[in-house]
TrEMBL record:
GO terms for molecular function: preQ1 synthase activity. This is GTP cyclohydrolase I. GO terms for biological process: tRNA queuosine(34) biosynthetic process. GO terms for cellular component: cytoplasm. Keywords: Cytoplasm, NADP, Oxidoreductase, Queuosine biosynthesis. The keyword Oxidoreductase applies. Pfam families: QueF. The keyword NADP applies.
Length: 236
């Protein structure tokens, strides 16, 4: 599982982030390192537009690669909060590491899990590792389709429960889904606050990463609300 650790860099707290990175590496997580190009020495970005573009572009690329975001929520950071919001809106899980008081509601609101110690952080990340299981594809050339009819999550706007059906179609290469694991996987969404689009992106990304199929399509059909029925589709 790829983990990106974000937090306050420009205000002198880089070492705290690097400490968490090292702990997670020792626990076997693949940590994406944003310190390949260090900018913590920059005192003022107002006249550094090109550097700003370079840093933000690189960090957003890391967010895209990450399976989960860890926010070290000890000190304010414009960039870290932007990374959290963007990642959360794409359906990526966020774990807020909060060993001290947090004086803003934003990190807590967007976090799937709030932890207060390094031990809790490691446990939370291990719990987030996908339960999707795959097996070798020893069968002839084929396509597969699965329909899960008991999907639920929480609407982040209303707080109400969304109910829907998820359809998965794909053409495998070397591995296929052990489809009974889908039930455990989809149950992880039950208490998550996610937009419909974020659900589809998350499911698509997890399955694509697990299988690397020839092609994949994920379709989510949600129950009607306020006269509108949502059908979200992603295919590659």
């Amino acid at each position: 599982m790829k983990v990106m650790v974000c937090g306050s860099i420009g205000y002198g707290h880089k070492e705290e982030i690097k400490k968490i990175q090292e702990i997670l590496r020792k626990e076997g997580f693949e940590v994406l390192d944003q310190f390949e190009h260090d900018y913590s020495h920059v005192d003022d970005f107002r006249d550094n537009e090109e550097l700003c573009r370079e840093i933000v572009t690189r960090d957003l690329e890391l967010c895209e690669k990450a399976d989960v975001i860890v926010l070290v929520a000890k000190h304010p950071s414009f960039g870290a909060m932007a990374e959290v919001v963007i990642s959360a809106m794409k359906g990526k899980p966020v774990v807020a590491f909060c060993p001290e008081k947090v004086r803003s509601p934003w990190p807590i609101y967007f976090a799937n899990k709030v932890v207060r110690s390094e031990e809790e952080l490691v446990r939370a990340l291990k719990e987030l590792e996908t339960p999707l299981r795959t097996i070798p594809n020893v069968y002839s050339d084929h396509e597969a389709e699965f329909t899960y009819t008991k999907f639920t999550c929480i609407c982040p706007v209303t707080g109400l429960r969304d109910i829907g059906t998820i359809k998965i179609r794909y053409k495998p290469k070397d591995r296929i889904l052990e489809y009974e694991s889908l039930d455990s996987y989809f149950k992880l969404f039950a208490d998550k606050k996610m937009h419909h689009e974020a659900v589809v992106c998350k499911v698509f990304n997890d399955i694509y990463q697990a299988l690397n199929p020839e092609w994949l399509e994920v379709v989510a059909e949600f129950e009607e609300r306020s006269g509108v029925k949502a059908v979200i589709r992603k295919r590659l």
